[in-house]
Fold:
Amino acid sequence: MYWNRIKWIMVASCGALIVLVWLQFRWLQHSKELLEEQFDHKVSMAMCSAVETMAQNQNGIPVDSCAKHQRPNCCRNDSDSRDLLHDPSLESALNQALAFYQIRLPYQVSIIDKDSLADSTLMPPYACSLNPLLSDDEQLLNLTFPTKVDFLLKQMRFMLGSSIFIVLAISLIFLAANYYLIQQKKLSERNLDFFNNMAHEFKTPLTNITLASRMLGRKQPELADNQFLAVIHREGQHLLQQVDRVLHLASFDHNQQTLQNEPLHLGALIKEVVTDMAPSIREKKATISVELDPDLPLINGDRLHLSNAFRNLIDNALKYCTAAPDLQIRVNTSPTPGNIQVVLEDNGIGISEHDLPHVFEKFQRVGQSAAAGFDGFGLGLAYVKKIVELHRGAIQVASQLQQGTRFSLTFPTA
Structure:
């Protein structure tokens, strides 16, 4: 499951990087289109300005006064259109107009007829009517810029360079992050394998120790009440339970263990757990009451893991308490249809509001329990939550310091 999450993270980050590159490309493309549009507009303005300037300066008489003054050679006619290309004043006017718009590129000038266009509505990119310089409106002044692309790229060099830098930087960060993520995953797997192997190695001698202490008490009755033998048996059993929790959590995290579900009566199961824990309950001088609703429906569950989960909750109620423990267990039909609710309320040391969000995290021992010197690895509640979720149930906790803790568990009925 952990490796699957890493793979999804890597796939998502790759997708994000591809989207980022595409967005950068689209941004550059859009910027190029804007620059090209501005360039076209400036060229068109410069061409029209050059034609108007030449028309205004022709013989010192404005073109719209040609007919009025009836001066010869005032306006050019169509036959003069070809000579216009060799007129130095045209080049001068174009250079001056283009320089005004900060366009200093080599260009080629031509004059085309509108009739030669396949579609009269489609004008060339840089074309301007020669009217009023010529007497009709059928001639177009046309410019072409051979180095236009280089000019636009030069204008975009900062944007292009910054985009390439950003994409390369993010790509390097992405590769480094994924590399260290994979390395961390391998390290975590090695640590987990070591921890699991160590737990397995501990389990065999601990089992032998608890078994030997039990057999010694049976074969030699005079040692049945021996205090040291009782300590050996109790602590060995405690360590064995901790090892089992570690192994169970590891197996569930790696999907190496499945639930052996069967129809169960949850109330009867909890009573069995309380009966099995009678020696610990007597030792703590605790009071445990179990209230069951009549006619409780069955659930589909794993007897072993559900028993261990309730044993963990009851053991916490007995352990994290400075007075005589008082635990109330209620099993009833949940207000939500199709569910059974189990509520466990104790009078223990409680959990602070700051620590409540972390009580179900592995290896987390919240403030009061750790400070007061209570033993444990912080695995019990993580195991309980895992088991409840595997049974498609939910668990909630409410607590206040020195006011006890309330766990509420819900399970779907069979």
DSSP finds twelve helices and ten strands in the chain. Residues 2-155 form one domain.
